[in-house]
Amino acid sequence: MTDFNTPPSSQPYTRSWYEHLERTLGAGPCRQLGIYALPENFVLSVVIPVYNERNTLPVLLERVRQVPIRKEIVLIDDCSRDGTRDLLKEYAERDWNDPLNKMSVHFHDVNQGKGAAVRTGLGKATGDVMIIQDADLEYDPGEIPRLLQPIVEGRADVVFGSRFLGDQPHRVLYFWHYVGNKVLTTLSNCFTNLNLTDMETCYKLFTREVIQKIQPKLVQNRFGIEPEITARVAKLKCRIFEMSISYDGRTYAQGKKIGVKDGFQALYCIVRYGLGD
Asked: In angstroms, what CA-CA distances link 26 with 10, 154, 233?
């Protein structure tokens, strides 16, 4: 683990970097292009739940580290059995010598599910803004700065990255997964009075203040964590933005884990957290 150092003036998202581009392009184009300045001591926490991702984790972690923002990377192993655990132990002991990335690794002794790993990670994270990042390669960390912009500019408390807004590429896969997602999102909207297009998305960003309010209440261990989080931020009357993201979905042969049982659990969670705490 390394201490954070102040990035050089040429580092993207610093004040001097932004002011140079603003003078060149103008404030309007900068805003449209996702060019903005981060606060001087800003830290983004990237919470990565991990379960049997030995083949994809090294590539994913490198892509996260390449995001040119000062980050705290929080990895939570949910009792993997494919060698991922040994890899994470090696990561925990390595001296990364990386001024933009600080890393912490945490281990579950018993497999509990994605939701439990997310709850652990959010409890350990200390950044100004927190994002959930799957350990596979379905979501592109290179899009994180764009998703972060509404929060940094003070317009949003929560940002959902939507796979269905239409202007980003996504892999064509399972029709019934698409239908199931739409049904679950629509039902969730009925209870939360939101107009989300993708409640089940992995990419959810939160201010630290929002996480401090909802994390102690989270209880779901598996994929029910998605509707639970959505219901809880809706009840807080958070300012929620939704932005398009790309999506490179996996097949079951490639390791996709969500199934029909998780869909029924999501239905239960939508009703439970929509009607009460």
From this structure: 18, 20, 35
Question: For residue 90, what is the enclosing H or E element?
Answer: helix 84-93
The whole-chain average pLDDT of the chain stands at 91
pLDDT one-digit tens code per residue, 160-205: 999 998 777 767 666 777 888 899 999 999 999 999 999 999 999 9
How many Å apart are CA 132 and CA 137, to the nearest integer? 13
DSSP β-ladder status, 44-50 and 71-77? parallel
Segment holding 264, helix H or strand E: helix 260-275
Contact 208, 164 (CB under 8 A): no
Tokens standing for residue 163: 């796979």
Burial class (CB in 10 A: 0-12, 13-18, 19+), 122: buried
Structural element, H or E, at residue 233: helix 225-235
Alpha helices by DSSP H, listed for 99-219, are 114-124, 144-152, 175-192, 208-214
**Following DSSP, what letter does each residue of 31-84 receive, concatenated?**
HHTT-----TT--EEEEEEESS-TTTHHHHHHHHHHSSS-EEEEEEE----SSH
∠ at Cα 82 (77, 86), nearest 5°? 60
Residue 69 has pLDDT above 70, yes or no: yes
Q: How many CB atoms lie within 10 A of CB 149?
A: 18
- Structural contact between residues 199 and 274, judged by C-beta atoms closer than 8 angstroms: no
